[in-house]
Design a protein that fits this description.
heterodimer; A: 225 residues; alpha+beta; 6 helices; B: 609 residues; 20-stranded antiparallel β-sheet; 24 helices
């Protein structure tokens, strides 16, 4: 009997719920190569689903953390980032009711930023004792007036087609947006999805997470300014 | 005299030989005679009977079956070629032992000579090795330590046995110092011994001689099922090994499941698959279940569910007073059995509780019957945060947008004989703030009903509670709670007679209306719902699936129940319809996967980087 109810409710839930989230990466570069970076996760569109998920212990085999656990993880992240050389003024904005989380801070140069991003992942994996060997990579590079968004190499991205159906559903309606601002007008941006602002000093790239994961849209972008 | 008696002796001898041979043949062909007594689960497939209803060969040729057996051994892919008779009965069973638990499949063999070509046909991956009485089927397996030959089954003139084992939960943890290799070795020895035992079994030591099996096992279905209720005891045994203090707990569980079985049969009729189910067991347990089942589903429930909206429901009735007594009966010796607690604590504790707790009052507050009904999908509007970007600088600004969400509409009803007390509880809850900081109450008293503001805030959904006509309602159906509570829906609107009858006759009913579910979901707005591939799936379901029923036959007999899956086409065999539905869904998914691959191939190389 229990099983029948479960199957029935699952049918309804599966038909109604699709996860939606937005990841926004903003980077403002100063003339001396230093800058400000902010990363925002906005899950507010899936507030209903996320609130229901938070009531469970696990979903699709993944442990569901509590809101307090999530906040704790961000506080730890802030502590780790502030301790890293070349990173300063790390601030958090945590809106657990709407599932909007922002981490922002200043960097003294792009290599400090790369180092910080890699070390954050490493320490987080170590702290949670996740048996995964993470190999650091270059996220951004700056040579003269050329800024590169490099991103992970093709083989590092999990094969979307081989992912479990439940996992694929998570990424299906996710969106990624990157905004890079420069001190002087942009000459060119190599990514076909790149859009340049009216003042000419900012570039926006927008793609679905699915497009990035199945590598239909490249993340790579070379911006000359 | 001699001349006269010789033909009689000869005749008798001849008759005896014929009888003996017939008996041997019959005995040999009855696969149940090779199922050990300790089998915990048995499924007997009457393949001949099924083949008469729908051609098994045609089902075997379906694309999804072919894909499923693509990597299977040759004798599974093409059994006839190896002399296996797929038109006789086949028996699948699960057994537990000291060292291993195992699954076995027994299939009739009509020509063992053909089986001997197995080695050539599988390029040496499978081979036969004679033991004198039968042939062992060996499979060449690659292991870290080099190739090894594992015995995965056996075959004789009458049947083929396929055998798969796993370490028994009871065995795990016996000697934590034992190496993995030693454990594997022991498991291999145990497997070989079990295979030999199954091959040599005669009716005498098999499940066929279990008197309960003989009495209750149903042979009339297309698939017969038998399950020992003690199926999970192995894991408890290993728990005790790790924590001997749980021995009393184990003994209680063992006494509850002792000589308790479930038997069933699946009939694959035209337009309907029916699983008939019967439980029986030790007298004490049966009496307890009978007492707990002395209850009726409230007739008034049906007034509050509208037929047109109905997607499905689960209704259930138990006698809460008797359930309390039964828990007490089982918990007392359990508490008394804990060595770390003083003996007699259990019974003393309940005697003391008796002074303070009025079980009859509790049973009147919640007699134990309830109904949970899904009545549709409802659109809710709610706000979310998004951003707009300034064209000039791409600076972002936060904006609040609204979004429409579809959420299931449901009603939960629970009978109460103490409406006043139930209201007192809700009133008390309406005075408690939702969080420690104070502020808004958990429940808001709206006069006729109570609303739950936190649900509205978090899910955007109205959630209401009310007590009326001896029923506690929890629902997000505003029309029902605000307008229909005093009388319910008109007779013409309420759920059909077949549901009312089912709830009157039975004290546990589950119903799912696939037609209403899929036709409603099909019309839902949204890109993902209106996607042609999703619509194709909904159409497939609508063309095949009708409804599902699960209930016990009679209220007074909680031990006999059935699950019936009704298909749309009454003139076509249900197995055929189900197999074709799975096949169509498989083909649609494969087509989509192929289209996706083709698109990938056509994508310009630069886009792939």
């Amino acid at each position: 009997m229990k099983r029948n109810i479960l199957i029935f409710s699952s049918l309804i839930v599966l038909s109604c719920c699709t996860g939606c989230f937005e990841l926004i990466e903003e980077l403002s570069l100063n003339a001396d190569g230093s800058g400000h970076v902010s990363i925002t996760f906005n899950g507010s569109k899936s507030k209903n689903k996320l609130n229901s998920v938070m009531l469970m212990d696990s979903i699709n085999g993944y442990v569901v953390p509590s809101k307090a656990d999530i906040n704790q993880e961000f506080f730890q992240l802030k502590k780790d980032l502030n301790a890293m050389s070349g990173i300063s003024g790390v601030k958090l904005s945590l809106d657990s009711d709407n599932f909007i989380y922002t981490v922002e801070g200043n960097f003294s140069n792009v290599s400090s930023l790369n180092n910080a991003l890699n070390r954050v992942v490493e320490t987080s994996l170590k702290r949670r004792a996740i048996p995964f060997t993470f190999e650091p990579f270059t996220h951004f590079s700056l040579k003269g007036n050329t800024f590169n968004r490099i991103g992970p190499e093709r083989e590092r991205i999990p094969d979307y087609k081989k992912m479990k159906f439940e996992d694929r559903k998570i990424f299906e309606s996710g969106e990624y947006r990157a905004i890079y601002r420069f001190p002087v007008p942009i000459q060119s941006a190599s990514n076909p999805r790149a859009v340049i602002s009216k003042n000419g000093k900012a570039m926006m790239f927008h793609a679905s997470v699915k497009e990035l994961m199945n590598q239909r849209v490249p993340m790579k972008n070379t911006i000359k300014f | 005299m001699m001349l006269h008696t010789t033909p009689i002796i000869l005749k008798k001898l001849l008759t005896s030989i014929v009888l003996f041979l017939s008996f041997q043949a019959l005995f040999g062909q009855n696969l149940m005679n090779h199922v050990p007594k300790e089998a915990m689960f048995i499924a007997e497939f009457n393949l001949g009977k099924m083949d008469k209803k729908t051609s098994l060969d045609s089902l075997g040729a379906l694309a999804f079956v072919q894909d499923f057996v693509r990597k299977a051994p040759a004798f599974i892919k093409n059994p006839g070629k190896f002399g296996i008779d797929t038109k006789q009965k086949a028996v699948l069973f699960y057994g537990t032992g000291e060292t291993i638990n195992y699954f076995s499949l027994l299939i009739s063999v009509k020509d063992i000579e053909k089986m001997k070509s197995l080695s050539d046909a599988t390029e040496g991956k499978f081979s036969l090795k004679s033991t004198g009485n039968y042939f062992e089927i060996e499979e060449k397996k690659y292991s870290y330590y080099g190739d090894s030959l594992d015995v995965v089954g056996a075959v004789n003139n009458n049947f083929l046995l396929l055998f798969g084992d796993m370490p028994s939960t009871d065995y795990m943890g016996i000697d934590p110092g034992e190496s993995y290799q030693d454990r594997q070795k022991k498991a291999k020895i145990a497997s070989k011994a079990k295979i030999a035992e199954i091959m040599a079994l005669s009716g005498i030591n098999s499940i066929s001689t279990n008197s309960d099996f003989k009495t209750y096992y149903k042979k009339d279905g297309d698939i017969g099922l038998w399950m020992n209720s003690a199926i999970g005891l192995g894991s408890y045994k290993s728990m005790i090994r790790r924590n001997p203090m749980l021995k009393g707990f184990y003994q209680q569980i063992e006494s509850m499941t002792k000589k308790s079985y479930n038997t069933g049969s699946i009939k694959l009729a035209n337009g309907e698959m029916v699983l008939d189910f019967q439980s029986f067991g030790n007298e004490k347990m049966m009496e307890m279940v009978k007492d707990v089942s002395k209850a009726r589903i409230n007739k008034k429930f049906s007034r509050y569910v509208k037929q047109d909206d109905l997607m499905g429901y689960a209704s259930f009735a138990a006698n809460s007073y008797n359930a309390g007594k039964a828990y007490r009966e089982y918990l007392t010796p359990l508490l008394d059995s804990f060595p770390q607690l003083p003996s007699g604590l259990g019974s003393s504790l309940f005697d003391i509780l008796d002074i303070f707790i009025d079980e009859e009052a509790i049973a009147e507050l919640v007699p134990g019957d309830m109904m949970f009904a899904f009545t549709g999908l409802k659109e809710y509007e709610r706000e979310y945060t998004s951003y707009i970007y300034n064209d000039s600088t791409f600076e972002r600004e936060e904006v609040i947008r609204t979004k429409k969400d579809m959420l299931p509409e449901f009603t939960f009803m629970l009978s109460t004989k103490r409406e006043g007390d139930m209201r007192k509880i809700l009133d008390a809850l309406s005075r408690i703030p939702a969080d420690r900081k104070g502020g808004e109450a958990l429940f808001a008293n709206e006069g006729l009903y109570y609303s739950i503001p936190t649900v509205k805030e978090k899910m955007g959904m109205d959630m209401m509670m009310a007590v009326q006509n001896g029923i506690l309602f929890i629902s997000n159906n505003a029309d029902l709670i605000q307008n229909k509570l005093s009388t319910g829906y008109e007779k013409a609107e309420m759920i059909e007679k077949k549901h009312r009858k089912a709830m009157r006759k039975s004290n546990q009913v589950v119903y799912v209306d696939f037609q209403n579910i899929f036709s409603t979901v099909k019309k839902l707005p949204g890109k993902s719902m209106q996607d042609p591939k999703t619509q194709e799936m909904f159409d497939l379901m609508l063309a095949n699936m009708d409804e599902l029923w699960s209930r016990n036959y009679k209220r007074k007999d909680p031990f006999k129940s059935f699950v019936s899956l009704k298909m749309v086409d009454n003139g076509k065999n249900s197995l055929d319809q189900m197999a074709n539905l799975v096949n169509d869904a498989f083909l649609a998914t494969s087509r989509r996967a192929k289209k996706y691959q083709d698109e990938e191939m056509l994508m310009p190389e630069e886009d792939k980087d």
